[in-house]
TrEMBL record:
Stored Gene3D superfamilies: Electron Transport, Fmn-binding Protein, Chain A
Keyword annotations: Oxidoreductase
GO molecular function list: FMN binding; riboflavin reductase (NADPH) activity
Domain Flavin reductase like per the UniProt entry, residue ranges: 36-185
Lineage: Bacteria, Bacillati, Actinomycetota, Actinomycetes, Kitasatosporales
Gene Ontology biological process terms from the UniProt entry: pyrimidine nucleobase catabolic process
Residue ranges of the region described as Disordered: 1-25
Domain of life: Bacteria
Protein name (Swiss-Prot/TrEMBL): Flavin reductase
């Protein structure tokens, strides 16, 4: 019996392990952030009617964690930090608005991501929509959803909501993306 020669060694890149990301050997928040900076995600704004904690005014935040969950019934989900200024209103809300942003709406996305900003002041264009939910004008699509669950997940909640109405083609255009810490557009 003759031995088969081993294949020639091929050059390899050193890939840092998850343990290399944290000095104590445990994967931590920075490992997750670093990996997801490389993951392009669509950008949405989630809105809710305000409550007493917000002086009755509407609330909203930028989300890149939006996910389609089920077609029948039509469910989606998004994450929200429990330390977010919008969390008390979302926790109390029965309905939320979900808005898919156009590639030109990076300023709107930045406004809704900025802490302490008056997100519904000019130049933001919006109206009160079904179920009292704030609906943003000029977005690719908007949905009004009934919240059916809030699932604890670390320092966040995963909100599951059922679509009740909306406009899937509110405006023409291409989606705004979030990638590597910046708002971006698709390239052909």
């Amino acid at each position: 019996m003759t031995a088969t020669p081993a294949p020639a060694a091929t050059p390899s890149r050193t890939v840092p392990s998850a343990r290399a990301a944290a000095p104590d050997g445990a994967a931590g928040p920075e490992l997750l952030r670093s990996a997801f900076r490389r993951h392009a995600a669509g950008v949405a704004v989630v809105t809710a009617p305000g409550g007493a904690a917000h002086g009755g005014g509407p609330v909203g935040f930028t989300a890149s964690s939006l996910t389609s969950v089920s077609a029948d019934p039509p469910l989606l989900s998004f994450g929200i930090g429990t330390g977010s200024s919008s969390w008390p209103a979302v926790r109390a809300a029965t309905h939320v608005g979900v808005h898919l942003l156009r590639e030109q709406q990076h300023e709107l996305a930045a406004t809704f991501a900025r802490s302490g900003a008056d997100r519904f002041a000019a130049p933001t264009r919006w109206r009160t929509g079904p179920e009292g939910v704030p609906v943003l004008d000029g977005v690719l699509a908007w949905l009004v959803c009934r919240i059916v669950g809030r699932v604890p997940a670390g320092d966040h909640r995963i909100v599951v909501a059922e679509v009740v109405t909306g406009d899937p083609a509110a405006s023409a255009g291409r989606p705004l993306l979030y990638h590597h810490g910046r708002f971006n557009a698709l390239r052909d």
